[in-house]
Amino acid sequence: MQRHALRRAAAHLGAPELSFEQIAAARSLTAHPGRHMDLTAHVYLVVEQQTLVLVRGLVQPYADVPQLTSTDLSLVNPGITPIGNDWFCSITTVAPAQPDRWWLALDPRRLDGPLSLRCRQPGDRFYPLGGQGSRKLQDFFVDQKISRALRAAWPLLVTPNAIVWVVGIRPDRRFHGAPQDSIWVGMVQKRTSSCGGNLGEASPTQ
Description:
- The protein has helices spanning 2-12, 20-28, 137-143, 148-151; strands at residues 36-40, 43-48, 51-56, 72-74, 79-84, 87-92, 103-106, 116-118, 125-126, 135-136, 156-159, 162-166, 170-171, 183-189, 202-205.
- By secondary structure, the protein is α+β, with helices and mostly antiparallel strands.
- The chain has 2 domains: 2-58, no CATH class; 72-189, 3-Layer(bba) Sandwich (Phenylalanyl-tRNA Synthetase, Chain B, domain 3), CATH 3.50.40.10.
- The termini are close together.
- This is Lysidine-tRNA(Ile) synthetase C-terminal domain-containing protein.
C-alpha cells in the first residue's frame, strides 16, 4: 500500500516512475522524523512524524515562510539582505506602515554586537517574551507546532552571544522594545510585503 501511495504521489508531482530501490530508500526514512532526501527529478521526500510528504523542490514549497539557504548570514545594517527562498531581511529606522508578525522593533542599546541570521544549533536557548526564564529552542518549536521540515532552516536573528528573535514567532524579552530610536528588522517577500500561511504544493502519503 505504501509503495503504491509513493508512486502515485510522485507521479502527481510530475516525477518519473519510482524504482524499487528508490521506494526502499524512502521507506527506510520513516523512522527518522525531520529527515529528507532527494528522491528524483527535483522531488523531495520529507518525513513529518508518521507521514511521508513529497514536495517539488526542498525550499520553494515553503516560499510563504522564510527559510535560510545558508547556516549563517551577515546582514546589511541599515539595508536589505537577500536570505533565499524569495525573502529579504530589511533593517531600517523607519517604522513600517503596517507591521505584521514578520517585523520587530529592537532597542539597539541592548544589542551586544552586529545582527545576523543563522539556523538553529544544538543547545540553543532564549528568553521568550511573555514567559519566565529561558526555554530550549527545540521545545519552543514543538510548543508552537512548527513543522519539523521547517525547523532546520527557520531563521534566527542573533547577536554574537544571544538569540534576539525567533523570526515571525517570538522575540527574546531582553531585546524587545520600541524606544524613540528603535530599529526595525523585517522579513519581506520578493513578490509581496506580507506572508500568508500557504506552504505550497505538496503531496502527502500515509
